[in-house]
Write a structure and sequence with these properties.
seven-stranded mixed beta sheet; 20 strands; 389 residues; Rossmann fold; Archaeosine Trna-guanine Transglycosylase, Chain: A, domain 4; six-stranded mixed beta sheet; globular
């Protein structure tokens, strides 16, 4: 199946950007279905690469910029390359959970693979990757050998609605493993079957480690705590007291389990099922280290304005109530909100609070969530560590 671009529209692909937008397409040789492998040509009929067709503004996600067959060897080599990078950057005896495949950054647009010990959790965001899921599972088994015991597909909630693939989550191979995953030596029980995303937010690993360094003897508040990542690191860092808050009772329950798993039932930890904004409103000046890691306030460009207002309001609440000398770790995981926009929202929040605020660290995603230099849109996580006077 072939797709031909309009004159002049080949420049983005020549710069190795992995998306073809629908407005760039002149015609198609045949009628590609969503998820089909297609060849993309310039108006002069020069082959530019091969990708997955899809319905929507992004019409093709590029898999290769070379003439290449997309087969079992392709998937195995792509995942082997991804594994080699993780071996050099994050894998160790103390860290057995990490992101193996991060979409466009690993040459696998539309695919996420997170590894938790002996289980790989696959999440397809495109029809093409979903249709290749069994080949991907076999490729994972080839790369990992006997150390991999299960491959779980969790694509039902991430596939394009219009693809109408009738996906259901389940094991592509193997069965459920119950051993906790390790992150920098801390144990976490991960619920990839029922939890958010693939079960755990692996992208905050480095930021959790940094927060740990500021917690000795301090009172720590973890808002939007999910399963307690920042809380566990704070306790290991010697926090005098840690409070975890989330609107999900299930998340709070899991956070308490993870704390107990590492520090016992008598750890100086409390947890509340509450709205994060409401809790900050009533928290007063009790906490001198605060982690603000909210869910994405904007999932499309039309929601950016409201998202920036939410970031401003959230951070103003924290800044106004933070004791003198406190530290706030604040984040945005909204891809459509730029780093500059987020920093501007925090600047406005600081003005609202009438506090003297200094930036200690500019925060980002870790090396197992790399960003392709040809696809800067892959940089979604941004954050600041602030000192409040």
């Amino acid at each position: 199946m072939k797709i031909f671009l309009k004159p002049g529209k080949e420049e983005a692909l020549q710069r190795r950007h992995p998306w073809v937008f629908s407005g760039a397409i002149q015609r198609a040789d045949g009628r590609p279905e969503e998820g089909d492998v297609v060849e993309v040509y310039s108006a002069a009929e020069q082959l530019l690469g091969i990708g997955h067709a899809q319905v929507g503004s992004i019409a093709v996600r590029m898999l290769s910029f070379e003439p290449q067959e997309i087969n079992a060897d392709f998937w195995r080599q792509a995942l082997q390359n991804a594994y080699n990078l993780r071996k050099k950057t994050v894998l160790s005896e103390n860290t057995t959970c990490y992101r193996l495949a991060h979409g466009e950054a690993d040459g696998l647009p539309g695919l996420i693979v997170d590894v938790y010990g002996a289980t790989a959790v696959l999440q397809a965001h495109s029809a093409g990757m979903y249709l290749a899921r069994h080949e991907l599972a076999q490729a994972l088994r080839s790369v990992y050998g006997g150390s991999l015991k299960a491959v779980y597909d969790k694509s039902a909630g991430t596939l394009p609605f219009k693809a109408n693939l009738g996906a259901a989550d389940g094991y592509l191979w193997g069965e459920k493993q119950v051993e906790p995953a390790l992150e920098n030596g801390i144990k976490f029980e991960v619920d990839w079957e029922g939890g958010q995303k693939t079960g755990f937010f692996l992208d905050q690993r480095d930021n959790r480690s940094l927060l740990e360094q500021y917690c000795r003897g301090r009172s720590v508040l973890n808002v939007f705590c999910y399963t307690g990542g920042f809380s566990a690191y704070a306790l290991r860092g010697g926090a005098a007291h840690v409070c975890s808050v989330d609107s999900s009772a299930r998340a709070v329950e899991q956070a308490c389990k993870n704390v107990a798993l590492n520090f016992g039932e008598q750890a100086p930890h409390e947890a509340h099922v509450a709205d994060g904004f409401d809790f900050l409103q009533s928290a007063g000046g009790k906490y001198d280290v605060i982690a603000l890691d909210p869910p994405a306030f904007a999932k499309h460009t039309g929601a950016v304005r409201n998202a920036l207002q939410a970031y401003r309001r959230l951070n103003a609440l924290a800044l106004k109530r933070a004791p003198q000398g406190s530290i706030i770790f604040t984040f945005s995981c909204s891809q459509v909100v730029s780093r500059e926009q987020f920093c501007s929202a925090i600047f406005s929040a600081a003005l609202d609070s009438r506090r003297n605020v200094r930036i200690l660290h500019r925060l980002a995603q870790p090396p197992d969530h790399p960003v392709s230099i040809y696809h800067p849109e892959g940089e979604y996580l941004k954050g600041l560590a602030l000192y409040v006077e």
